[in-house]
Structures are given as structure tokens and as C-alpha cells.
Amino acid sequence: MVTSDQRRRQLAREKYARQQQRREENRLKAKRRNTVIAAALAVVLAAGGAVYASVALTDDSSKGSADAAGDPTGTPSTPAPTESESASPEPKLTVDQKATYAMALSTNEGEVTITMDAAKTPHTVNSFKHLADKKYFDGTKCHRLTTQGIYVLQCGDPKGDGTGGPGYTIPDENLTALGKAGADGTVTFPAGTVAMANTGQPGTGGSQFFLVYKDTKLPPSYTPFGKIDAAGLKAVQDVAAAGVEGGATDGAPKKPVTIAKATVTKK
């Protein structure tokens, strides 16, 4: 027969076991969360010095001119694409919001054509047309390649160091296009997707964008606005295969990529 003392001890042991199980579950959840944040950080380039703390995609340029903002999500992994904040108004919306546009990037590594749907991302398409018409991207470098954690080539910075931008910001668009975030807080950006970098805060996109060359998991906070054609995707994948300077996994591509000319036309 079980005495009251034995029963109390048994209940205490069971309570302790449940507490330990909850602690372990919380630890695993926190670990998954930190992995996701790290990946998001990898998409954000840190202010001023573009510190790659994690896996965020950012554009550090939108601050008033070409000043960089801080790394929106810094965590330990591969930093994300980012852009800095700005005070100037975005260009007047003049694109046909029912049309499809093509952005052609003539690079030293091949032609990359990006199809953009103005019905889904009118502000983004309008900004790219405005900048391309002004030859903003001509002669600029794709300054960042990541080959671990996230798989992107980041371009669109006239300074070539992750801190440049157009002096204005544009709103986020089409954020639900890739589906609902999973338990880890991410969605899959399929290979061939083109999306906007930002500072890690809503509505901070500028001119920097990233080309996804291999399926990549990121939080759904980066505007997906275009799709790369097959030849262009192959060219980006070839650049990625060559790796990062110095054998790193995040930094300037070993095979330099320069955009000689960028044009945006209505299809």
C-alpha cells in the first residue's frame, strides 16, 4: 500500500519531470528562433561597416543619402540583405500598374533578365524603372555573395560596399506571395527569386536587391518582386560556384560582377 508520503514524493518527481521536459522544449524553440533570426540578420548588412553578424539580407543605404542603417537583426550566422533609411519622397508612381516589366542587367558575367509584375509590386517596379532610366545602376558592382545559410547575390548599391542607396525608401509589397511562415518563422524564397533588401524594419527598401540562386529560407519581410530568366540564373549560379573572396562564406564574390547597364521596359 502506498503511503501519503510516498504519494507526495511520486507527485513531486512527476512534477519535476514535467518541468524538465518543458525547459527542454523551450530551449529547442529558442534555438530554432535564434536560427531564424540569424538567417534574417544575414539579409541585413550592418550600418557603416556592413558587419556580417548573421544571415540577414539588408540594404544600408536609405538613410537620408547614402548613409547606412544598422543591422536590423544581428545574430550569429550569415547577415541578410539590407538598405538604410531615407527622408526623401519616393518617385511619383508612373508605371502601368496592370503591366509586366522586364529589367535587363548587362553584366560582365552574362545577361540577367528579371520579369516584374507591376500589379503586385507597383512601387518597387516604379522605383526600378525610375532608377534605371537615370542610369543609377550602370557601372555598379554586386557587392555581396553568401554561400552558407542563405544563398544570394546582392546588388544595387552604387557605393559597392552595402551602404549606398537612392536617398528614399519604398513600401514593402507582396509579402504573402511565398506563403505563410512556418513554425520557424520563415518561408522559402525559391531559386530565381529577386527580392528587396531592407534595414530589417518595415518600409525601408531602397535600391539594393538580392538574387536567390538556390532555395533559401528567410522571414517573409523582403519584397519578392521579380523572377530571373534561366540564362540569368545560370550566370548567378556560376558566380556562386566560384565562391567568396578569401574562402569566406559571406562577402565580395571571388568572381567580380559589374552591372554595365540596366534597363527597364514594359513587356
Automatic annotation (TrEMBL):
Region (Disordered): 1-32, 61-93
Entry keyword Transmembrane: yes
Signal sequence range: none
GO molecular function per UniProt: isomerase activity
InterPro entries: Cyclophilin-like_dom_sf (IPR029000), Cyclophilin-type_PPIase_dom (IPR002130), Cyclophilin_A-like (IPR044666)
Membrane-traversing stretches: 36-55
Skewed-composition ranges (Polar residues): 74-87
Keywords: Isomerase, Membrane, Transmembrane, Transmembrane helix
Pfam families in UniProt: Pro_isomerase
Record-annotated PPIase cyclophilin-type domain positions: 110-264
Keyword Mitochondrion on entry: no
Comp. bias intervals (Basic and acidic residues): 1-28
Role summary: PPIases accelerate the folding of proteins. It catalyzes the cis-trans isomerization of proline imidic peptide bonds in oligopeptides.
PANTHER family reported for this sequence: PEPTIDYL-PROLYL CIS-TRANS ISOMERASE B-RELATED, PEPTIDYL-PROLYL CIS-TRANS ISOMERASE-RELATED
Name by which UniProt lists this protein: Peptidylprolyl isomerase
Taxonomic placement: Bacteria, Bacillati, Actinomycetota, Actinomycetes, Kitasatosporales
